[in-house]
Amino acid sequence: MNAAAEAEFNILLATDSYKVTHYKQYPPNTSKVYSYFECREKKTENSKIRKVKYEETVFYGLQYILNKYLKGKVVTREKIQEAKEVYREHFQDDVFNEKGWNYILEKYDGHLPIEVKAVPEGSVVPRGNVLFTVENTDPECFWLTNWIEFMAQ
């Protein structure tokens, strides 16, 4: 991406469309969502025999994504408005969590209230182990965890 494209990147549009309505689907009083990413172990359906080419994975690239797309003020009024319009057209309904994104803009000046923990970049990790975790740090933003988790996959 060139500098202009980076400035225009809208994290509110950078997710699977089905995740746009997830905030409405959490149980009442949800306040914390903790997600993890792993390189899954693949097994055949009829046995426990592993059928994978590599038993380990090299973990790298998360710091780049965090610094490029999730660090600093990533939510703005303009991005909220753009997402609202795109999702209204896409879903033919007002399902976008405008209130939640405005909360982040107003309370955190557009910075994301999340915490990401990860194994060190360059680590060689056996398949089936957690590579990184994501969780919200504000109970009002429980829905944000899995929105962000998609960015790091």
Automatic annotation (TrEMBL):
SUPFAM superfamilies: Nicotinate/Quinolinate PRTase N-terminal domain-like (SSF54675). It holds the Pfam family NAMPT_N. GO terms for biological process: NAD+ biosynthetic process. Residues 10-116 form the Nicotinamide phosphoribosyltransferase N-terminal domain. InterPro entries: DUF5598, Nicotinamide_PRibTrfase. One of its GO terms (molecular function) is nicotinamide phosphoribosyltransferase activity. It comes from the Eukaryota. This is Nicotinamide phosphoribosyltransferase.
